[in-house]
Batch of 4 targets.
Target 1
Amino acid sequence: MYIRSNLGGERLIQSDPLTFITLTPLAVGLALLILPYLAPASMADFTRKISRSLSMGVALAIFAITTALFLGQIGNIDWLNITQGQYVFQNDSVVLLESIGVRWVVGVDALSFPMVWLTALLIPISMLVEWDAKKGHLFHPLILVMEGALIGVFVVLDLFVFYVFWELTLIPMFFLILVWGGDDRRYASMKFFIYTFTASVLMLIGILVMYFNTGDADLAGSLTGHHFDLVAMTAQAAGGGLIAGEGLRHFVWLLLLIGFATKMPSVPVHTWLPDAHVQAPTAGSMLLAGVMLKMGAYGFLRIAVTIFPESTVVFTPLLIILGMASLVYGAIVCMGQTNLKRMVAYSSVSHMGLIFLGIATMQPLGIAGALFMMFAHGIISPLLFAVAGAFKHHYHTLEIGSMRGIAHHSPWLAGHMMLGWMASLGLPLLAGFVAEIAVMIAFWMTFGWLVIWPALTLIITAVYYLTSMQKMIFEGGDPHVGILPDTMHGEEPRDITWHENAGMFVLGGLTVLFGIMPFIFWDMMSDWSTEFMLETLVQAMNSQGVKP
Amino acid sequence: MGGLASKLPVTATAMMFGSMSIIGIPLIGGFWSKEIIVGKTWYAYFNGADALLGPAILILATAGMTGFYMSRMWFMTFAGEPKNELVDHVHEETPWVKTPLVILSIITALGGFGLALYGMVDWLSGEADHLSIHKDTFFDQVIYELEHAFLPEDEQVRMIGWTTILLSFIVGPIFAARVYGGSLKEGEKATPIVHWLTSLSGKFGSQNVDELANSQFAEALQNRLYFDDLYEWVLGKTILPFSAFAAWFDANVIDGVVKQIESNSVFGSVQIRRVTTGSARDYILMAAVGALCIFALIWGVSA
């Protein structure tokens, strides 16, 4: 009924764009994956031929729609004035499972929209970078399925459907690693799946406890009398607490934390990440680091902090410990790595630590810095992984120090490496700096001299990035003499292909753009954080006797 | 290098003005700031700031050393006779290098005095509230600034000022000229702007410093007093091994716990699978044991 009433793509885009951009990639991707096995032979060949271009076309269309949402061509939204708890492009909810109260509700605000845009951006870029992947008729549709699942996580406002999408992202990524991964791909894909799945099951228990404490009769399922609606849960939590017992509240908060911290990932539940990254294909790594890690931070803010602000205040020291451990320990482990992709993976752990620190400051500036870190890391780390993937692709090794003077042979690759590395170590005028400086200032305002730890970590970050760069693309002792790695076996070194170059150019350009003009997303993020502080956290801090 | 003054006239001129400015040759750019810094430091010492004696002596000594090392650099590069035949092939060509050099040289040579005339010194020291020529005529302003710089009213400051000039302008450069200076090779001709300097540098005789240059002190200086080695040693003994240990720790302890859970659960499931033998006798035996247990339990509870 719902679909029929909205038939005709344009009307659906206008009336419910979020549903459209979530379901279209899922439907097209699945169709392209399954059709060749159902259709007659001649048609199957045809499907295989067009699947790569068709996937790219759909991905670009989704990106265009998302950009139009931001610029106001669709919906004409004023992104700066979305009040706390209000979602734009919210649809008329559709009942999916009447008996237990599951609905299809979508909506975005300043927390989720940058992530949706980031996803829509990274999908075509990761397709482009791996344009000539083998088994392309499966690879590209799989990434399209991934896009639907990722956008779904960020837009749905029903925790049941949220959990479904959350787990759905694992499946395409599992196959990406298992089929297109490196030598040790079986172990890595299993570890990735089971590790993160275990954590999300704990999160599911937390969600179920919340579910059984809801009580809005209008939304409730006919059999259980409860509902999964996030907006109603948030309202109930603000108006007197979702769960009565304080101990149970803290327990649920901790369950949610385990689920989200594993996804982010935070020390000590981070060890799935390096294995998964090293084995994953380039596009997989790009999406894993660019978007999937942010799911953890997004879920933490959207569910744990929003619904249980008091627990967040109580457990602030835990957040600081986790954040500091990820940041400092992650950076030190980075220095000890000899594999380029492993190093970049650990640097993600290190940077994600800043998100916890930003939230722990309980300052609008710190939370906005954490949000911007999610976005900035989302465009920088895919660039890093694209560069690492290009080394693997063209030089067949990721060992740091196995080559010298690569800049002679691959000037473009060396240039992109330099830009990405500089952006990640926090060079001013590049995107990463904005987030880092915001979190640091907020951290100073709240915790004073403790800021020395994150600040000193920046030096370690510079050390491991600069040494790894010097050991790969710059010369050794003799000028104008490069050393090719043994893995080349006499092959002539080449520069990156045009499609790798184009993808890296877009990412590098955006890094510069958002470094010079962060306000494009910063303004809405900082407005959201201020509102979030005033509406949610200040009361919680007062009730816990912490001076805001 | 050596003897490049005739091959690179513009570079030599620009370098000469730059070095002069850093040394603080009177009336050229850097003179105006250096003079005031040295003068004010000593003035503060004379007026009760005893703790400033050390810095004040150092700043004066440094002025002389600057005169020495900047002159040394210039003489070694541009004066004397070429030390190898590569010098014959050196020449200036593109205007992209020469034009900025000329512009910067002019600014360096005239900028300091120009700004001083325009009241910069008074403005910075708070004696004037805007930049202007604040004497009646331009000539008066020139006299005023020169007097201010060379004949300040305070006798001590005047003395210090002239000591600075003596050390940086006379003593340092002359020592440098004795060791490194020398006129150009026969037949080579430099532009008049620098020619006087090359020929002058040959007029102070020569002094052999090989003994000092080969001493351990010189070697220590060449190694920057071993500070780099110290840093490298400390980092190599602390941070780097620690990071290698952290990487090992992460792979073997933190991830080791995960792997242990994994292998234990695999081991456990293998053990449990053994019970499922598929043989009917085993199942009957198990059922019998189970039934006995239940009986025993009921017996125990009811008794």
Target 2
Amino acid sequence: MAVVALLILGAIVVGLVLLIRKFMDRKGPDTSDGSDVLPYLLLAVAVGTAGFSLAALARAAFPAGSVVFDRAGQVATALAGLVVAAPIAVYLWRRQAKRRESFPASGGWTVYLALIEGVFMTTLVITGYMLTNWILSDGDRTTWSDVFVYAAIIAFHEVAARRTPPHSDSADLPRVVGSVIGLIATATAATGIVFWLLDQVYATFSPQAGGEPLMTWIALLVVGGPVWFFRWWRPWPAESSLPRDLWLFVVSVAALATAIAATTFTVIQTVVFVLTTTDDAAGHFEFLPVAVSVGLVALLLWAHHRSRLGSERTDSVRAYEYAMTAIGLSSVVGGATWLTALAFGGGDLITVDSGVVVSAVIFVLVSLVVWWRFWSTAEAAPRDVEAASTPRRFYLIGMGVVMGLTSAGALIGALVVLFQMVLDTAEGDTLVVQGALFVLSGLATWHLLRENANDRSLIVSEDVVTPFDVTIVCSHPGMVSTLFSDKARLRVLYRGDDEGAISDKMAEQIVEEVNNISSLVWVDGDGFRVARTRI
Amino acid sequence: MTEGSRGRWLIGAGAVAFVLVLAFIALAREPVLLDAGSPEGVVQRYLQAVSDGDYNAAFDYLDPDFYEGCDATALARSAPDEPFSASIEDEEASPDHPLVAVTLRFGSGGGPFGSGWTSYEQFELVRVSGSWLITGEAWPYFSWDCRKDT
């Protein structure tokens, strides 16, 4: 039975290698462009299977305090994975290493490294955190072997990446993926630690607070911090790259939006407490440690990543600012609709909680400030350059479409309510929300599309000239040939007399009259005539 | 054979040897056998018997009074199909009414992308004729309909 199983496994491996050779090597190494995405994806699957199988085997050998386990089953599963995946991984690894010598700018290599980074760095951070948490606190017991196996896989690929660094347009992608993983772990840990500190302070005057475990957050910081430092803080090979700029944009927008949301929530709760609440202060402000810790960490992240975007108004900076403008505008529309619904909606049976009204007012005000702050920055920039930029066009057209669809949807909703009223089947619905949303999103659409129309008038467009034929019958062409566009195919037929010479002024008039269209030009003593030729 | 290819062969041979050593350790290594007279030892033997598919042996560790009317076939019907491992958690046990906490790990459990999951279970024990036996509604929660007093 074992022999049969081994034969089957061997046949699978040999068959796969033969298939790879037949379908991937048939053109020869020098005939393709060398991006090799498919072989690298297969390699990633093989390395992933082999890596996780090796980790499973190590877990079976060092089972972390397990008193009951199915050794034979675990070993058999792990070995089967290794026997199939490892030879394919070795074969493809060696094949691609040779290919990288011929095609150093292979895009597949970048994709492969990013995939490995995403899968194994995530696994390393999680298993490393579990192990550290177990050591530092009373977390679940876990095995140390996982950390060693995953760290070895990361280290192996790090060495390979340094030996033959990716050179494609997105060469920074693997490091950015590592930075994402490191940042998420570090930011979560930092938020947890700040929360713990604030919670301890809060616990001195509030019996509800306290008791959150510090060591869990420290364990996460111990693992995530070095990953983030190693992947993000080391010098980058280039000043700017698409993956890094994209990541800076995402974090800058997300962090600033989070910081503003945390601050707004705190302000709302404070005003609500001052104006309305009858609760005790400690109970009402129980949210403060969470809001402050989240807001503080988000603010720090924003400050760091925004500064790295640079002060020059590049497309990355524009994308960040227009994304914030979009958030502000959407919030204004949503908040104003909410406020209108509070003001005019609802029945007379219940009074609206003044705390909710205060929340809506502050929400709208903050949204307006955010929108105005970023929109005015965009308006202050030189308009002709700004109008042609991709982020602005994307913002105006994209948001215009979104707001237009919202307005249309609200109109449909309003009509439904209206018809229900006419047919006397309305169940307490009012037109307030749909009407307000229709008007507000309609106004936003009008503003966006008007700006887009203004921008289009500022963008200088070059006329597209297609090749055309001009035949001139004259005594002397003068300088006319230098005045036509380079798309003109000019032919001159001499009349054989002196009646039809072309002066400089006439040459300009002929070019204007021809207007880049295939024509026959007759020149004589009375001047010139132009006839369009048949196309 | 060149220096480079010899190095590659050595690395390959080392990797294969490493895998074989791991497999050998995994197969040769016996789990720590807890004292059969302790509550933890009884739970260990019960779980090992379930893991091995020896449901008659597993049923012998259950309190006959509580499980009156049931037999090993009822246990077999509810036993998990997939392999699992178990580790004893540190719990404060009362000498008269011990509770043994166990973390069960099912499936491959290969990191965050593995198909495994864990389950935290508690086993209640009672002393019968000088031996500890598992009582109460014990994992794997087989059909309680078989019990006489249900």
Target 3
Amino acid sequence: MIPKELVAASAEALILSLLSKGESYGYAIIQEVRARSDNHLQWTDGMLYPVLHRMENNGWIKSRWVKMENGRKRKYYSLKEDGKTALDEQRTQWMKVHSVLTQLWGEKYA
Amino acid sequence: MRDLDVQIGEWRARMAAGGIKSPVVLDELESHLREEIERQVRAGMDERKAFEIAAQKIGGSDLLKAEFRKIQRSREIPVGRLAGVACCVTAALYSLMLAPALVTIRELDSTQRILGIEAVLLTLLFLVSLGFSYKFLPVIRNRRVRVASVGACALAGLVWVFVFSNFLPNFIVPRLMGATVSETHTLAPMAGGYESRASSLQVRNEVPRRILIEQAGYHLKPAPMSAVFGIGISMFWAMTLAAALGGLAYGLEEAAKRRSTEHSYV
């Protein structure tokens, strides 16, 4: 299991990356992250929403309520232009961390 | 199903009592809760049990409240940004309003004209830079330091705008030139008296009032026009400084807002 500090640090990058593939809603975002990480990346479900709201506040993403066929509502989030820029920045940073770690591990385990 | 609705209603009430007051947030959390229950029920779980697990997974109101409060805090203080923009826009408008004088007043020498136009252009540059300056300004992570810096810049800018657009032209300049103005007033009746004598000498139309007054033994200083022009040009530069301060206040807060990497615990 990945510690919560690391989960928190990667939350924005994960959400931005997921939303760059198309709009989505809280529950689906959590399910997809969980599935893609083989259950290693687990969020306390509710805590995703403050992150989403903060990102919306930042002007990175926007939301809209959609009424489903069964009468229930879902709040869909999608990426805005500033979000794409933020994603580019975060991608560069994560790739940097990734490249340093792989370099170091490459030396050690070569 | 009715049981579930009652349970969810109670759960919403508990969350609201715990500090999650926003109905929009509660709606979103409820939507999530129902999705999770539905998934568990589809997997064969009893509805009541599914509700308990789903509610547990969403987490308690304490943690959520703390996280949402962080966002509210960042929402609470657009004051600096608003004051910054107000300062910048007022300075630019005031500058633009006075700018035609830089061309129309013939007595201005070329240095004064160029200095004035430079100031107006620079003010407009600061106004335009509101759109991108945050990219180059530092992100002040310490909230208190940030609020203090933004507040100081915005306040200084607004005071500066007020002093130079209002206080200076309406109070300080008339005061500086007050001697000339008030002397003219107090001397007017005497000058009038002298004028009547002068008219009897048939020089009334040829001799300006000022000379008549001076002939009467009173000395009036000529209006210090170069000083007035100097003050005028300084007003343009004062507006530039105000626009810079306003722009800084806005930019610092915008930088912190847009480029903040403060993480929440998920």
Target 4
Amino acid sequence: MESTLGSHNRPSGMPPPVIAPINEGMWRAAGAGRLDLQRCRECGAHRYPPTDGCYRCSSLNWEWSTVPGTGTIYTYIWVPDAARSGEQDRPVLYNVAFVELDGTEGDPVRMATNVLDAWDPDDLYVGQAVVLACVPLGDGLGLPCFRRVP
Amino acid sequence: MTADFPVDAACIVGIGHSAYGTRGQLADLGAARLALDAIHEASRDAGLDVKDIDGFSGWCDDETLPADLAVSLGSTHFRYSGLVWGGRGSGLPGAVTNAYMAVATGMADYVVVVRSLIQAKRLGQSWGAGVGRGEAIPLASSYTVPFGLALPAGLYAPKARRHMALYGTTIEHFAEVSINARRNAVNNPDARFRTEITVAEHHNSRLIADPVRLLDCCMESDGAAAVIITSPERARHLRQAPIPIMGVSMAHEYKWGNAGWGTLEETFASTGHRRAAEELYRRTGTGPGDIDVALFYDAFTPGVIMSLEDWGFCPVGEGGPFVAEGYIRREGKLPVNTHGGNLAEVYLQGITHLLEAVRQLRGISSNQIAGAETALYGSGIGAAPGGGILLHRQ
């Protein structure tokens, strides 16, 4: 899955996330193919990355909330992946995209992620539609990544 | 001018720096020795006995400790120290604010703002704030590093791309920021990169995090620099003509956080300093039209273009065309980073920009702007709180 010829374009050598009470629900949901975000129990605003308090109403009460898992690319970068590039003239690039998620309440929620089926700079553009495509982390956990919507 | 902010309540009376080196080159000396070299030079510049320094102000989790500096300086009345809480490399305006407040309230007489840096950890390769590659990541990096958002350039590049998509900014615009820095560094004997570069060299430089290339990035370096701040009354008895600090601000945007993806749409493709600009201009009764020289934190070139917009030198979205017109060159209407900045002189997280602001206002810069009477410092894209500093000539 992580090889140059694999089906997923993911950066090599990156550590897994730190699992903690404030984020475990989201990795677990991604392990089941869902996208769960923190949602304020008082005002209903979604937020990401996880925070203890609500940026909108300051409440400390929150719950996990499943969102549709569709969105659009807000911005993105391409980074050379030294480990996968080897001696090739053209480095293998991985992408990091900020995806603005559909179906959220409050200020638009964005997520830094990888678009798994984008390999070349021409494969991504601002405004492009993407859909959730989770990558397993083991132990029932997953990373919320995305694929392009044709 | 509003009555609630005491302008000109403190001034800069001395500037100094240690030797500068490439990353790790000065590691054997240690950060404290570099800091002391800088403080001694600043004191000589001011005509001040180092024993009289009684306050210390730092930022960015500086590894030196004021207690140690005070012992080595022989400070007889150590009575103030402050470190900006958060802000990382954006924290210089906070450090100057702390020194300003300490002096204005009589907490201390001579406060040194100092930054000493040995890049043993390779900031340019770090996974997160101060976290080296291969080290365990903190919880807060769990939403970036596993996805490969694991370089300082990764903080800037998404904003650069968004700026390009929204406003038509181009990599030619980024190149001009780098070309300007190199061009100014040619005349600065302290600068590391003293050869000019071309647009083609910029475009052909190694990709770091597209759209950011190597020649969009600052260097990694070792060194220390210091400024000494005191009251206008005490300044009269020192060697240099004092450079008053007209005002400071350390505001940031609502929901800015650590400059991630969660900022508001209207401030995403910015350095996060529009509110800081508004506060600084309001406190000092000035505006962008009053600024003669601008020193902007230039860790990466796109941030300079956004700074021009945030500090009101052009409308939002027009920073690219502004630099394309040559306006930031030393012959232009707003000379920017006349010392070469982080891109070409040395990378000490902003303080060398402040040294250059003082040199401009003393009339001794290696790229002196004729008649410069005001100089603005603005911090770059980074964690809150950043801010601004406005100096002027008396």
